[in-house]
Amino acid sequence: MEITFLGHASLSVKFDSHTLLVDPFITGNPMVKDAIKLKDLKPDFILLTHAHQDHVLDVEEIASGTNCKIISNYEIAMYFQEKGFEVHPMNHGGSWSFPFGKLKYVQAVHTSSFADGTYGGQPGGFVLSAAGKNIYIAGDTALTMDMKLIPKQFVLDLAILPIGDNFTMGIEDAVHASDFVECSKVLGYHYDTFGYIEIDHKLAKETFKKAGKELHLLGIGESMTI
């Protein structure tokens, strides 16, 4: 399974013959520049954790050029369905088996609304079970005790956690989150894009290392394989 960091909280996940795109925010990200082009993104499915502009900005353009299906909470799914896109609605605690594997929609503590003011439902994250791996995609979230429920059902191979602080967990809380989900391999995201969420990369890695954990910080367009 190959995971490519597309900047901010945007990810491409490829395995077997499937490509998943998570929270596409490309054209509005000043750090991406020409590193990623929308025309090159051809996902089979788009996963959306919540409705904020820095997570859904490029959904319509990408989905318009493909036959992909949008997976998110009920309110977000209905928002895009009304625009003519194919969707699959979910809600907290629910799971569904897709052609690529299984998704469970889990709790996130944050807010969720579209740029036009439309209510975006309750934010969430996903546990992806596919290609023999289990990956937790936390979305934008605070540290929450609900994370302790995840290892009761899944043995995680990777936890993808926000680490930028201010709007989400910061570095120290992300370490606690990795404890809660019982996963020592972490991919950090949702950092550096804006002034509010700039981090000290060296300090972040040292903090995780002292806790006996491995923090990956990928450059835009860089990939890791699990």
Overall description:
The protein has 226 residues and is of the alpha/beta class. It has a single domain, classed as Ribonuclease Z/Hydroxyacylglutathione hydrolase-like (Metallo-beta-lactamase, Chain A), CATH 3.60.15. The protein is built from 5 helices and 14 strands. The strands form 2 sheets. Strands 6-5-4-3-2-1-14 form a 7-stranded mixed β-sheet, covered by helices on one side. Strands 7-8-9-10-11-12-13 form a 7-stranded mixed β-sheet. A hairpin with a 5-residue loop joins β1 (2-5) and β2 (11-15). The termini are close together.
Question: What's a concise summary of this model?
Answer:
The protein has helices spanning 53-56, 59-64, 74-81, 171-180, 201-210, and strands at 2-5, 11-15, 18-22, 45-47, 69-73, 87-90, 95-98, 101-107, 124-130, 133-137, 158-162, 185-189, 214-216, 223-225. The protein has 226 residues and is α/β, with parallel strands linked by helices.
Name the descriptors:
5 helices; single chain; Metallo-beta-lactamase, Chain A; 7-stranded mixed sheet; 226 residues; 29% strand; alpha/beta
CATH C-level? Alpha Beta
Say what the CATH topology is.
Metallo-beta-lactamase, Chain A
**Low-pLDDT segments, ≥5 res:** none
CATH superfamily: Ribonuclease Z/Hydroxyacylglutathione hydrolase-like
Helix percentage: 10-25%
Overall structural class, as computed from helix and strand content, comes to alpha/beta
The coarse silhouette is globular
Architecture per CATH nomenclature, i.e. the level-2 architecture: 4-Layer Sandwich
With strands numbered from the N-terminus, the spatial order across the biggest sheet is: 6-5-4-3-2-1-14
Give the averaged pLDDT, no decimals: 97
Overall number of strands:
14
The major β-sheet equals: 7 strands, mixed
Question: How much beta, percentage-wise?
Answer: 25-35%
Number of domains: 1
